[in-house]
Amino acid sequence: HEETGWKLVHQDVFRPPANLPMILCVFVGTGVQVFVMALLTIAFAAVGFVSPANRGSLIIVLLLLYVCMGSFAGYHCARLYKTFKGQRWQKATALCAVFYPGLCFAVFFALDLALASR
pTM of this prediction? Predict the structure, then answer.
């Protein structure tokens, strides 16, 4: 009786990544945060809570939802990291909280410096 199909690939599917599993978890957590934020913002705009004509309210809702969805990001990041048998889930959660905002800050700061030096 030869093994075929799922029996051949099930070990590869559930194997943790060999290189930088924490970074993968941080990206997944941040992706959940941004996806749920965008989904809820679109839902609020479709229902009529947020009017696209009033641009200030749209930005405020985006920022508020981004901050509120940080708990979802941390949960999904830590849950996935623990699934990979990681021991430092607190570090993964903290990295999830500062990686994307830090990257955005660094990019905008560099662009601001470049424009200010002209």
Answer: 0.81
